[in-house]
């Protein structure tokens, strides 16, 4: 049996550059956790269904268990460990604490990264399936239905959705009002 090929790749993670050697089939999640020791992103389902591994790649939400690490080269990766450096990141983390938006905490890193990415998407006018008129840019105002729909890819096994919604709603209101505190 032949050993798997190894490839040298460079990743830009949380503002730092890292050179690693890995099998070209290594997922971004495994590269972050196993090669860089960034264990905040969790391996839940390993099928892209639970959202526990959500990170930001070039400010867009990605389930890192479905993205190959080689595909993330030359792209800006933000994990929960660096989320406080992006707009609304620190504010979102504090809102999760203030609103008790977690129970076991397993899904929390993915929930926070997803919420931060979602706020940016709404700010840029991206509609969701809950948006009244998807033919027009979204107005940036996020009601509970919009937040729920936009975060529907992130599963909380404990059922802390009410508190997660309250946390995201509090930050979404600040962002819409232009009062973001990062």
From TrEMBL:
Positions of the 2Fe-2S ferredoxin-type domain: 7-83
SUPFAM superfamilies: 2Fe-2S ferredoxin-like, CO dehydrogenase ISP C-domain like
InterPro entries per UniProt: 2Fe-2S-bd, 2Fe-2S-bd_dom_sf, 2Fe-2S_ferredoxin-like_sf, 2Fe-2S_ferredoxin-type, 2Fe2S_fd_BS, Aldehyde_Oxdr_Iron-Sulfur, Beta-grasp_dom_sf
Keywords attached to this entry: 2Fe-2S, Iron, Iron-sulfur, Metal-binding, Oxidoreductase
Pfam families membership: Fer2, Fer2_2
Superkingdom classification of source: Bacteria
Molecular function via GO: 2 iron, 2 sulfur cluster binding; metal ion binding; oxidoreductase activity, acting on the aldehyde or oxo group of donors
Associated pathway: Alkaloid degradation; nicotine degradation
PANTHER family: OXIDOREDUCTASE WITH IRON-SULFUR SUBUNIT (PTHR45331:SF2), OXIDOREDUCTASE, IRON-SULPHUR BINDING SUBUNIT-RELATED-RELATED (PTHR45331)
Entry protein name: Xanthine dehydrogenase YagT iron-sulfur-binding subunit
